[in-house]
Design brief:
Number of domains: 3
Order of helices and strands: EHEEHEHEHEHEHEHEHEHHHEHEEHEHHH
Number of helices: 16
Mean pLDDT: 89
Shape: elongated
Bound molecules: guanosine-5'-triphosphate, iron/sulfur cluster, magnesium ion
Strand content: 15-25%
Distance between the termini: 39 Å
Length: 409
C-alpha cells in the first residue's frame, strides 16, 4: 500500500523496460532515475523477476518503473521468467524495448507483436551506442516501420533526456485519467460524502477511494461534508445551501437513497471509480446480464487484492446473498482474488469486479477488454449493488451520456 504522502501507485505512469538479456535494461533504469535502483552485471540473466520501483522522475512526474528479466532465456526457469516479463505488459502504459546496435531478432519481434496485440505504446531504445553506432540498415528499418526510437548509452548517461522527452510525448491517452468527481461539480458546490464506519472499515482510517474523492473535491474548490449514514438526514436539514450531490458507500445505498431528496444527485464511490479506473459505460451495460441471470448460471466475483476477509464480506458474503435473494436463487459463485486475472473467464455468465483501487487504469481497462473479448459481461460491485437494490437509474443520473445510453437500452 502506498504512503499517504505519496501519489498512489495506481496513479503513476507505468513504464516497463523489456528486451533481451544483457542489453542494459537495468543500467538504463539507473540512468533514467539517476540512482542505483536496479542491479547491473555483465552476466546475462541478472534480473530474474519483475522489479517495481515507484519514483518521481523529472520532468516526467510520478512513475512506476518496471525492470524485467531478459526475454531470450532458456530452460524451464527461463520460460517462467519470460512469462512473468510478458505479464507486465498488462499493466504497462508505455514500454521501452532495449536493443543494441546489433539490431532486433525474433525475441524483439515477439515482444513487439504482444505489445501491439495489447494496444500498448512502446519505444525502441538502442543502447550501448558508446560501443557501437547502429547500422544504417537498422535505423532505416525502424523508420520504415514507423517505430519511435532513442539512442542511448546508459553507461555514460547519454541520450537520456531525449529519451525522457520521447516518453512524455508518447505517453498514452488512457493514462490521462478522467477526474473522479471534479467535472461534475463547480467551485462553491457542496458535496456530502456518506461513509458508514461500522461495515468493515479499517480501524482508525479511511480507504483510498474516499481520500482521493475528498482531494478531488478540494481541488475543485468545492465543499465536502462527511457524515455517517445515520447523520445524513440531520446534515441535509441543517445545511443552508442545498448540496449538489451525495456520494455514498455502496453498502448504505438503500438508506441514503431514501433519505436524499430526489432533486439532489446521488451516486456511490464505487460508481465514480468505475469511471475513473475503467469504462463506466461498459461496466454498466453488464448490469443487464445481472438482471437476466438464470438458474444454474455461474458468476465470477473477482477482487484485485487479497485483503483481509470480513465475516460479512461484501464480495464473498453480501453480494451473493443479495443476488440470490433479489435476482435468482440458484446461482453458482466462484471467487478470485489477486493480481493475475483468471484465464477461464469464458466459463461465466457474468463477472462482478471490485473497484480495483490497487490497479492502474491500464490494468483495469485490460480486465474489461479481456472479458469483452470472451463475450462475458463485466460489472463492478457498486453497479451490481445499485442494480440489485433498484437504484442504478438514479445513481447514473450525474453521468449524462452513460445515463442516456443505459436508459435507452
Ligand atoms: N558499454 C556499455 N555497456 C553497458 C551499457 N549499458 C549497460 N552496459 C553493460 O552491459 C551489462 C549488462 O547490463 P544490465 O543493465 O545488467 O543489462 P540487463 O539488460 O538488465 O541484463 P539482464 O538483467 O541480465 O537481462 C553490464 O556489464 C553493463 O555495465 C552502455 O550503454 N554501454
Ligand atoms: S476495491 Fe478491490 S483492490 Fe481495492 S481493496 Fe477492495 S478488493 Fe482490494
Ligand atoms: Mg537486468
Amino acid at each position: 500500500m502506498s504512503n499517504l504522502n505519496q501519489t498512489p501507485t495506481a496513479n503513476r505512469l507505468h513504464i516497463a523496460i523489456l528486451g533481451k538479456r544483457n542489453t542494459g535494461k537495468s543500467s538504463l533504469i539507473n540512468a533514467i532515475t539517476a540512482q542505483k535502483t536496479a542491479i547491473v552485471s555483465e552476466h546475462a540473466g541478472t534480473t530474474t523477476d519483475p522489479v517495481y520501483k515507484a519514483m518521481e522522475i523529472l520532468p516526467i512526474g510520478p512513475v512506476v518503473i518496471i525492470d524485467t528479466a531478459g526475454i531470450d532465456d532458456s530452460g524451464d526457469l527461463g520460460g517462467l521468467r519470460i512469462g512473468k516479463s510478458y505479464e507486465v505488459i498488462n499493466k504497462t502504459d508505455i514500454a521501452l524495448i532495449v536493443i543494441t546496435a546489433s539490431g532486433m531478432n525474433s525475441y524483439d519481434e515477439e515482444i513487439i507483436k504482444r505489445l501491439k496485440e495489447n494496444g500498448t505504446e512502446f519505444l525502441i531504445v538502442i543502447n550501448k551506442i558508446d560501443e557501437a553506432a547502429p547500422e544504417v540498415e537498422l535505423i532505416r528499418r525502424l523508420t520504415d516501420e514507423g517505430y519511435k526510437y532513442a539512442l542511448t548509452s546508459a553507461l555514460k548517461s547519454e541520450g537520456i533526456s531525449q529519451l525522457k522527452d520521447l516518453i512524455i510525448k508518447n505517453s498514452p491517452k488512457t493514462f490521462e485519467q478522467p477526474s473522479i468527481v471534479g467535472d461534475l461539480i463547480k467551485p462553491g458546490d457542496t458535496v456530502i460524502l456518506v461513509i458508514p464506519i461500522d461495515t468493515g472499515m479499517p480501524k482508525g482510517r479511511l480507504i483510498l477511494p474516499q481520500v482521493q474523492t475528498m482531494r478531488d473535491i478540494l481541488d475543485s474548490d468545492a465543499l465536502a461534508y462527511i457524515v455517517k449514514e445515520r447523520e445524513l438526514r440531520w446534515a441535509l436539514a441543517n445545511l443552508k445551501q442545498k448540496p449538489k450531490m451525495v456520494i455514498t458507500d455502496s453498502q448504505a445505498f438503500m438508506k441514503v437513497s431514501a433519505d436524499t431528496p430526489s432533486d439532489i444527485l446521488l451516486t456511490s464511490f464505487s460508481i465514480l471509480f468505475a469511471r475513473y479506473k475503467g469504462d463506466l459505460l461498459k461496466l454498466v451495460k453488464g448490469a443487464k446480464a445481472l438482471k437476466n441471470l438464470k438458474p444454474g448460471d455461474r458468476v465470477l466475483v473477482a477482487e484485485a487484492c487479497t485483503h483481509h476477509q470480513q465475516p460479512d464480506d461484501i464480495g464473498r458474503v453480501k453480494l451473493p446473498r443479495w443476488i440470490r435473494q433479489h435476482i435468482e436463487e440458484k446461482i453458482e459463485f466462484d471467487f478470485y482474488s489477486g493480481r493475475d486475472y483468471p484465464q477461464n473467464a469464458a466459463d461465466y455468465k457474468l463477472i462482478i469486479h471490485c473497484a480495483g483501487c490497487v490497479l492502474n487504469r491500464r490494468e483495469m481497462l485490460n480486465r474489461i477488454e479481456a472479458a469483452e473479448v470472451k463475450g462475458v459481461p463485466i460489472i463492478n460491485y457498486g453497479v451490481a449493488i445499485a442494480c440489485i437494490h433498484g437504484v442504478l437509474d438514479r445513481a447514473l443520473m450525474p453521468f449524462g451520456e452513460v445515463y442516456h445510453e443505459w436508459m435507452e437500452n
